[in-house]
């Protein structure tokens, strides 16, 4: 690399915002700077290990002993963190330390600005900008770095005080790797104590598979020596019987940057046709960008204990994107790429196995600890619902894991399993009934539920946006079919068959004919119903027609929606129906029928095509 004179650059605008946030807001847990810098050093070492394995011609073949070293210079108020990882080129320094290329930066900054201070520290690591946390404690930060492929005598020096600018220049360097010099603020002298740094390392990085050494000075002998602080053994390779609960929790914090303890985890070594180790965690809370289109997720992939890549999405389906952990395969090749990984038969076997492993974890939790499972469902239930469409092979297991609100649970919280619903079905009940709506309240107050409330038949209340789409895939459970109560079905008629005795339907023939003439092609049919108790009329869709909620989904997505012709059902015992039936004046009768139909549409859809006409009709009827 040719010598390059010192040049001053301006930080990308998002970096300026982030630095301001770091320096002025993130003071609740300042020690995270060391966690993040050690994590970055570890990543750099994993990268050079990988490169040396299958791009060997580019790199020296001398014996490689990875290490992260930390030393303190009290007089200069400096902490120095060094690693012999892959290092950076001049251009990479500008790219990596002057900009944030990751998508979603602005939404991240907006979100982190509005959350509790105690949670902000976690987002820094999750977003991958941990290097900038060094400015929480530092007046200036200097980065000396040299890429492992660089055979020349110069590296790159980056310096900044975190106030909007940074300088970059070439500098003499013999060895490749990175050295970060933190010149501490006067208020941060506590981090110049060796005991303090040891405490932080043990807390956050104890199970890092790379040795972390700290420099000690012996006053008597006046000599320096290096002391290894962490265990430096990959946690997942150890016998799980020898691993403490606290060790598993600390490792979760390391791989996820989430200081909240995980909900549950599973650690398994599999031998046979495929040999691999997996350590999978279910978090207690969702990642900030779980619903972001470009959300980064997936497992850390190791092959024969060698780190290969982060965020390997090929090993779990998208609906399990909240799972954190590692997979260490003995069968995949070391030079595997994401493209080859996608098509590998080994990957498919592992994906199938790991998916079942996660679902088994959740199934066991739902049986052994309902409270803890409910905690999981409240956070990740919406994502799990995606699985019914995405994972047909495991549909039965996913169905068991679903939770719903219903008439009888009397709460918006989704707590009812399908197993419990089926167990509570009344004698003679043939189907699992449900209703989809825009909200829990509108579902609960729907006129479709009146007969079910009277007969003590439970109905699932579905008000999440995904629910209508989900029910296209949830056809049956334990050989019992699902039935929407807002769609025509013979099983609904069977519920009220004994109530027809008290009403002479023939008396309503002329009444029904008059209504059909007025509504003409607005409806598919008009008929008497015995399912209503307190409501004069309602509409429902035919069994093969698009439902109201599905039409709303199509409309919201900008898709063409076929016009739905509803079936209007009339409650013959309601006082208003009896009153309208007696009206002889055709104009007045027509106005009442239109109002009856439109209020039924309003109850079903939550809106009308022409609300002003509806209001005018009502006002006119009030004046009569």
Automatic annotation (TrEMBL):
Q: What does this protein do?
A: Molecular chaperone. Has ATPase activity.
Protein's cellular compartments: Cytoplasm
Segments for region (C): 553-624
Which residue ranges does the record annotate as region A? Answer: 1-338
- Keywords on record: ATP-binding, Chaperone, Cytoplasm, Nucleotide-binding, Stress response
User: Gene symbol?
Assistant: htpG
Q: Which domain of life is it from?
A: Bacteria
Q: What do the Gene Ontology cellular component annotations say? A: cytoplasm
Outline the subunit composition: Homodimer.
Q: Name one GO molecular function term.
A: ATP-dependent protein folding chaperone
According to UniProt, the name of this protein is: Chaperone protein HtpG
Main subcellular localization, coarse class? cytoplasm
Coiled-coil features, chain-numbered ranges: none
Q: Which family does it belong to?
A: Belongs to the heat shock protein 90 family.
Source organism lineage?
A: Bacteria, Pseudomonadati, Pseudomonadota, Gammaproteobacteria, Enterobacterales
Among NCBIfam families, the record links this protein to: PRK05218.1
Q: Which SUPFAM superfamilies match?
A: ATPase domain of HSP90 chaperone/DNA topoisomerase II/histidine kinase, HSP90 C-terminal domain, Ribosomal protein S5 domain 2-like
Where along this sequence does the record place binding of ATP?
A: 36, 40, 83, 88, 96, 102-104, 126-131, 178, 338
């Amino acid at each position: 690399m040719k010598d390059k004179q010192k040049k001053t650059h301006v930080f990308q605008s998002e970096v300026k915002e982030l630095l301001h946030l770091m320096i002025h807001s993130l003071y609740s847990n300042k020690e995270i700077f060391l966690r993040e810098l050690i994590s970055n050093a570890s990543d750099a070492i994993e990268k050079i290990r990988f490169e040396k394995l299958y791009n060997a011609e580019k790199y020296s073949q001398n014996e490689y002993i990875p290490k992260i070293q930390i030393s303190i210079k009290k007089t200069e108020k400096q902490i120095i963190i060094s690693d012999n990882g892959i290092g950076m080129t001049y251009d990479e320094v500008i790219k990596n330390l002057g900009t944030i290329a990751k998508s979603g930066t602005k939404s991240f900054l907006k979100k982190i600005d509005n959350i509790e201070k105690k949670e902000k520290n976690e987002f820094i690591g999750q977003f991958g900008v941990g290097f900038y946390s060094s400015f929480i404690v530092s007046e200036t930060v200097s980065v000396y770095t040299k890429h492992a492929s660089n055979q020349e005598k110069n590296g790159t020096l980056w310096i900044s005080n975190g106030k909007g600018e940074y300088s970059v220049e070439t500098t003499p360097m013999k060895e490749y790797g990175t050295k970060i010099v933190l010149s501490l603020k006067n208020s941060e002298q506590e981090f110049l104590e060796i005991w303090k740094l040891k405490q932080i390392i043990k807390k956050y990085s104890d199970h890092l598979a790379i040795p972390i050494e700290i420099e000690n000075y012996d006053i008597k002998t006046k000599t320096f020596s290096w002391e290894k602080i962490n265990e430096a053994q990959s946690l997942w390779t150890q016998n799980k019987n020898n691993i403490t609960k606290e060790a598993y929790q600390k490792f979760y914090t390391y791989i996820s940057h989430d200081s909240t303890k995980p909900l549950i985890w599973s650690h398994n070594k599999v031998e046979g046709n495929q040999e691999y180790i997996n350590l999978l965690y279910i978090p207690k809370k969702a990642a900030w960008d779980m619903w972001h289109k470009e959300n980064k997720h997936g497992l850390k992939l190791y092959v024969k204990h060698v780190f290969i890549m982060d965020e390997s999405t090929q090993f779990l389906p998208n609906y399990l994107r909240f799972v954190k952990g590692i997979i260490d395969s003995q069968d995949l090749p070391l030079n595997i790429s994401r493209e080859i990984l996608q098509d590998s038969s080994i990957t498919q076997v592992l994906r199938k196995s790991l998916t079942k492993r996660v679902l088994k974890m959740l199934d066991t939790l739902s049986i052994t600890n309902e409270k803890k499972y409910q905690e999981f469902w409240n956070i990740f239930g919406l994502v799990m619902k995606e699985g019914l469409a995405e994972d047909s092979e495991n549909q039965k297991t996913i169905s068991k894991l679903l939770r719903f609100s219903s008439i009888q649970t009397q709460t918006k919280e989704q707590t009812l399993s399908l197993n419990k619903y089926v167990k509570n079905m009344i004698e003679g009940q043939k189907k699992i009934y449900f209703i989809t709506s825009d909200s829990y309240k509108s579902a609960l107050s729907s006129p479709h539920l009146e007969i079910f409330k009277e007969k003590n038949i439970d109905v699932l209340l579905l008000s999440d946006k995904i629910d209508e789409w989900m029910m296209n895939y949830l056809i049956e459970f334990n050989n019992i079919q699902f039935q929407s109560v807002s769609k025509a079905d013979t099983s609904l008629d069977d519920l009220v068959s004994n109530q027809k005795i008290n009403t002479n339907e023939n008396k309503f023939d002329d009444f029904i004919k008059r209504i059909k003439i007025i509504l003409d092609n607005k409806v598919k049919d008009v008929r008497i119903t015995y399912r209503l108790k307190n409501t004069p009329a309602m509409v429902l869709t035919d069994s093969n027609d698009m439902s109201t909620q599905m039409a709303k989904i199509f409309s919201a997505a900008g898709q063409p929606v076929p016009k739905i012709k509803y079936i209007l059902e009339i409650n013959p015992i309601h006082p208003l129906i009896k009153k309208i039936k007696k009206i002889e004046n055709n104009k007045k009768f027509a106005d009442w029928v239109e109002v009856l139909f439109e209020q039924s549409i309003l109850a079903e859809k939550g809106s009308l095509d022409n609300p002003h006409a509806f209001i005018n009709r009502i006002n006119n009827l009030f004046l009569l």
